[in-house]
Amino acid sequence: MSEPANPSTLLDTLVVGAGITGLTLAFDLQQKSSGTAHSAKVLVAESQARVGGRIVTASGDGFLWEEGPNSFAPTPELLQLAVEVGLKDKLVFADGKLPRFVYWQGELMPVPMSPPAIISSKLLTWRGKLRAFFGALGFVPPAMADVGSEETVASFFERHLGREVLQRLVEPFVSGVYAGDPRQLSARAAFGRVARMAEAGGGLVAGAVRTSRQKPKTKVTPDPNVPQPKRGQLGSFRQGLATLPEAIADRLGDAVQLNWHLIRVRPTERHTYIAEFSTPDGPKRVEARSVVLTTPTYVTADLFDPLHGEIARALRGFVYPSVACVVLGYPTSALKRPLNGFGNLIPRNQGIRTLGTIWSSSLFSGRAPEGWNLLINFIGGTGDPAIAELEKDEIVRVVHRDLLKTLLARDVDPKVLAVHLWKRAIPQYCLGHHQRWEQIDRGLQEFPGLYLCGNYSDGVAVGDCVRRARDRAAEIRQYLASATV
Fold this sequence. Notes:
18 strands, single chain, 3 domains, Polyamine Oxidase, Chain A, domain 2, 16 helices
């Protein structure tokens, strides 16, 4: 007969990983149980010496920059979280009217964001515009699924809007968000909202109208304490994105433990889980009623090897390409033009290796000294795995050479602020994505109280991580309320 759990040391929830997902989830569990009869016992265990995961903010020489995500779409859940942890006055928003650019045939061209802009845009030819117009109205050839019932992003958009839209708008967008290949990504997984419009029938325009009519018409009264940014704005904090995870960790206090490396986790006969850690103070063993793994799939797969081989295999089906974030400062006098915009993306057929450049000092004030511009460049991705083999100096030379074509008027040595190589950067939502998740979900039914929560499921943006964490926290509260030990 197994030894009963000790209620004085038993955790309600163990959260593995102190990225924005794990921190948000733990904070939600603690906050919504405070003042109740049972205050949730939560522990967040992080293998690194800092919180934030892929969110990395750094500063030096009068510059402030990001080496992971650079900003966020101000979703209601994220803004609410910022207010709850006391950051309302530290929020900053970029002007939503700032243009985005695509580098095409030696010229930076603004991305058309409205029907009149599409008509006047030089980025698409008249043939390309007409093809996109008739495709959006529903004059679309039938789908030819690439795998099973799935269609790639490339096939989907070329079928609906034509080759020009695919090459000049969709491909660079995919490079900017996923650092991925539209010929490998699943349209239904990577562009779910657009795919659902198409499934609604009658073309993308009619599908958009139908899906909007199907949304609940309940009127939500905005919280007066939560900022209401304008359409198209992107957000950050005065001292960078790391402000958010650090503020959440401060609220959680001793519930966050750093340099705790999870070795194994196993279920017990008493419907709890035992987790074993390597820590600076030696081995630690904790018991919890529920466990949430917010770790990347390649880490999570190793933990599942002794538990469930099918889940481990499905997790190993996710691909993470290497991406280098190259942060460079240039004097304003060296630029071809004033950088009044969000940045530029570069289609893969333009002979330029860099994926794109964020004009960071044009987005948010205080990111560069007077007379300087801060450029955050991304290079690598699915189509360029060799980037991981280059020395940092060589990566800088490649990016600088590309900037001489796109943004620089003259050759001047950059101020190299950072070269951060993410060897496993962004999870790819490739064909078979939903089938992998169905396989994982089936396997997890054998482990009640054990949850996965990561950016490899349904959205890679910071706002997606916050939304997903709060949804998962609600599930865990329901489980804990019904489960007994």
